[in-house]
Amino acid sequence: MNLETVLEMLRGGTGLRTHSGAVTPGDVFVALSGTRVDGARFIDDAVARGARVVVHGEGVDVPRHEGVSCLAVQSPAQTLGVLARAAFGTQSNLPRIIGVTGTNGKTTTAHLIHFLLSRNGMATGLVGTVHCSWPGVQVPATMTTPDCLSLHEIIGRMVRDGVDNLVMEVSSHALDQERIAGLPMEVGVFSNLTQDHLDYHGDMQRYFEAKARLFLDGPARCAKGLVNVDDEYGQRLKAMRPDLLGFGLDSEDAELRCRILVAGPGGMTLGLSHDGHTWELRTGLVGRHNAYNLLSAVGTGLLLGLTPAQCDCLSQAPGAPGRLERVPNERGLDIFIDYAHTPDALEKVSVALKSMGFKRLLTVFGCGGDRDASKRPLMGEAVARHADVAVVTSDNPRTEDPDSIIDQIEPGLANARLVLRETDRRKAIALALEAMEPGDALLIAGKGHEDYQIIGTQKRHFSDFEVVRECLS
To answer: What is the homologous superfamily of the domain 3-88 according to CATH?
Structure first.
């Protein structure tokens, strides 16, 4: 059995599986080396369920099975990308793909780029944290970047529906696990790198190395890209690959520069410059972090051949759901919901709200369970620096004790002006609303667009937006 034979089978409609429990008679099974479990352990189960071909790593001892062919490959994860393109029809007419990575800003940046390309007449798809969508279709997202098979299946549907551009959030997990195998990136965008996911990567260097795969030599390397050179890690990427377009608000080395000319509760006016040209962009989005997000979108447009005038439509872009999103209410209260769940994101969104001239800032926040615990006091510190009232509560506690998580946050709140502790998130939001006074702003951070809360191993319906409306009614 050789690779081309397997590809012909898949083009002819043979099923492709990576989970032995999903195998049906005649399928091709790829045994991936997972982060927790080695897929080679399930080859016998896949064969028992009818797998006709088994693709596995070199050096894996696979017992002979009558009527079953085996194919040993150097990288099953990379080979899966090649096989998936044959199985889901993404071998030809693949959209031009823009991959957005970084710790914070991925979702808003991806939505802004999607808006920009769509407004310029391009049939554009979006794969990200909030949802996967393309003209006429929207499906819920289960993770920032789907697994390789699911991703190719979605893109296959996009191809059949005429999508010619795709904007994709690319997580560090996805890059490390090669979920984007078989999907060449036309443009890569690097927003920033701050502490997150160290429970998975171990340290910041390995976290950076995972993100850098999108830009440096290797299968995931983008053809061209742009990096935030105001960010320490963005500077490192630029030094490693000088052809990347550097953007920023502060760095003299940025080829695409931005100055915030006017900022207030109603939005910002940005002054942009690139390649000898200067122009202004007005936006209803607020905060320095959104200036970076808009700059990323403009930079992507320029790399794809758009003119500054064609990028002006970004003045009408609404941003992304659950990202510093105002909750309309009859009382006229200034209530904002944001997905911020890292120290840096909390810092940036807090600074944005403080700059808008509110009397006080009240912040409801927590930390997720079964995730990087070292960032918990740091998130407390970020809130303490800016909030007049900090309401610490549960996020998605998962299998951890919610009170134990809060105990780990509280050292960071040592210098906070006022701390209210309420483990029940619904009650915490109600408590914050009761404490609001005219002229205050309330930030409810951590969950953003999510309409669930994970307690134990159960996902229960919970929406910050709905809770606010219920409390106010």
So the answer is: MurE/MurF, N-terminal domain (3.40.1390.10)
- Share the mean pLDDT of the chain: 95
> Which residue ranges of the chain lie beneath pLDDT 70?
35
| pLDDT score, position 64 | 87
Residue extents of the structural domains in the chain: 3-88, 96-316, 325-472
For residue range 60-88, what is the model confidence (pLDDT) as tens digits?
888 888 999 999 999 999 999 999 999 99
Distance of CA 388 to the CA centre of its chain: 30
Helix (H) or strand (E) holding 279, with range, is strand 277-283
The fold adopted by the segment(s) 96-316 is UDP-N-acetylmuramoyl-L-alanine:D-glutamate ligase (3.40.1190)
Contact call for residues 8 and 82 (beta carbons, < 8 A): no
Whose tokens are 């976290």? That residue is 207
- Give the annotated binding-site residues: 20, 102-108, 144-145, 171, 177, 179, 371, 395-398, 446, 450
Q: Give me the pLDDT at residue 188, please.
A: 98
DSSP sequence for 242-275: TTSEEEESS-TT-SEEEEEEEEETTEEEEEEEET
Residues annotated within the binding site for meso-2,6-diaminopimelate are 371, 395-398, 446, 450
Check if 3-88 and 325-472 are the same fold. Answer: no
pLDDT of amino acid 92: 79
- The DSSP symbol for 166 reads E
Confidence (pLDDT) at 199: 83
Hey, what CATH class is 325-472 in?
alpha beta
Residues placed in the known binding site for ATP = 102-108
Strands (E), 27-109: 28-30, 53-57, 69-73, 96-101
Q: Contact 196/102 with Cβ under 8 angstroms?
A: no
* Burial class of residue 109, CB neighbours in 10 A (0-12, 13-18, 19+): buried
For residue 204, give the nearest of 374, 325, 23, 346 by alpha carbon.
374
The whole-model pTM stands at 0.91
Give which of 374, 379, 319 is closest to 344, Cα–Cα. Answer: 379
Q: Let me know: does 384 contact 413? Beta carbons within 8 Å.
A: yes
Q: What is the pLDDT of residue 38?
A: 86
The first and second tokens of residue 212, run together, are: 């850098």
CB contact at 8 A, 410 and 332:
no
